[in-house]
Specification:
4% of the residues lie in helices and 38% in strands. The protein is mainly β.
């Protein structure tokens, strides 16, 4: 057999840098005229409320004792059968126990943010022009959470101005610590005006920090998650699961990766290393039984996508073969059964090309309730420094 061997490194999704004195509305709505109200929900589109699962709550990472959480909100509208009235905010410890509960009645209440200027300034312990924040001092490090909801459990709503700020009270002068607020399921209302133009930061398991600028996407109750497998969790094949799907009733993206409002704090989430295929390690060995052993070495675990190009026409043809598999640090051997994409044996003497894509920071961004995405997405790699990532930029009815 004639063999042509090549390999490349592939990244999915990356980052865009934002600097702020608070975490919340300033990042999600960079300019008071833009849109992206956060929804708290109690039913199928569940986010931030008492009835939601842990992965659907907004989290705050605490690294050291002495760090304090300041937070505040202002609801926009309700969708229940009654007037909204007062609503509650509950701080939960990493085990989900309620550690503090407050009720916000009016703009005079502690924790009530009056306008965008207050939300983007942060709590008034940082600046007199900030909001009068609710406060909680965690007893130990961990991932804390909060619930939001109306006292009437039938009501659910959206809120505009909000902020969550972590401050190290042992250091003077006081200053905020960015990169501590995340959720695995965010839900936004961004159907009008400029749409949703925020940038959010993803943290896959290999700590290749990535982000996506939404660039004007529109949606009503837009559900946003980040995971490695796309629209459906394993054991669904990610090669097909990562593709957009037509509308599916009661479908919701499954949460897996943390999605941050800022670049995750590198003191808590250290920068990962870029994986590479060790130079000159790729060896393709045909076996007497018609199978082919594809051997290569990598410096860290990841996922490889192997294209066995049998048809010389450009692009992936039906008789070409795509193999997706895990790779581990050191020597790897992946077997191709010698059949083409139609399940037919490839005759001896037919030339083929083997191309390996080694995926780092593998991230898929499935979304629900997308109305339009006229301008696509802006994707960048923030840390570690590396090549511009390759990514798919086509959006369908339910996902990327």
């Amino acid at each position: 057999m004639k063999r042509l061997i090549k390999y490349s490194l592939l990244f999915f999704l990356s980052t865009y840098w934002l600097i702020g004195q608070s975490e919340g509305w300033k990042q999600l709505r960079p300019g008071n005229a833009t849109q992206g109200q956060i929804s708290w929900e109690r039913d199928f589109w569940c986010s931030s409320s008492q009835l939601c699962a842990k992965d659907n709550k907004i989290h705050i990472r605490i690294k050291n004792t002495g760090e304090k959480i300041y937070y505040g909100f202002n609801d926009a509208m309700n969708f229940g059968p009654f007037d909204s009235g007062p609503y509650y905010v509950r701080m939960l410890d990493p085990d989900g126990n309620v550690m503090k509960a407050d009720t916000l009645y009016s703009p005079a209440s502690q924790g009530f943010i009056i306008d965008y200027a207050q939300a983007s300034t942060g709590p008034n312990v940082l600046s007199p022009s900030g909001y009068w924040g609710l406060e909680y001092t965690p007893a130990s490090p961990g991932d804390y959470m909060f619930d939001i909801g109306y006292l009437d459990p039938l009501l659910y709503a959206e809120f505009t101005n909000f902020d969550v700020t972590v401050i190290d009270t042992t250091v003077a002068p006081l200053r905020p610590i960015d990169g501590r607020v995340y959720c695995k399921t965010w839900i936004f209302n961004c159907a009008q005006n400029e749409g949703f133009i925020a940038t959010m930061y993803g943290l896959p398991p290999d700590s290749i920090v990535t982000s996506i600028k939404f660039n004007g996407i529109r949606g009503n109750q837009l559900a946003v998650t980040l995971n490695h497998n796309g629209c459906f969790p394993p054991p669904a094949d990610w090669i097909t699961s990562r593709k957009s799907k037509v509308y599916i009733t009661n479908w919701l993206p499954y949460p897996e990766y943390k999605l941050f409002l800022n670049d995750p704090d590198s003191l808590v989430y250290p920068t990962g290393i870029l994986g590479m295929i060790i130079q000159n390690s790729l060896l393709v060995t045909p076996n007497c039984n018609g199978t082919v052993a594809i051997n290569f070495q990598v410096n860290k675990s990841g996922i490889v996508e192997i294209l066995v190009k049998i048809n010389p026409l450009p692009g992936i043809q039906t008789d070409d073969v795509v193999i997706s598999d895990s790779a581990y640090a050191g020597l790897n051997t992946i077997s191709w059964n010698g059949l083409n994409g139609l399940g037919q044996p490839v005759a001896n003497g037919i030339p083929f090309e083997v191309s390996i894509k080694y995926l780092n920071g593998l991230s898929n961004l499935p979304m629900r309730d997308v109305y339009s995405s006229s301008f696509g997405f802006i994707v960048q790699l923030y840390r570690p420094v590396g090549p511009i990532p390759q990514y798919n930029n086509g959006i369908g009815p339910t996902g990327l």
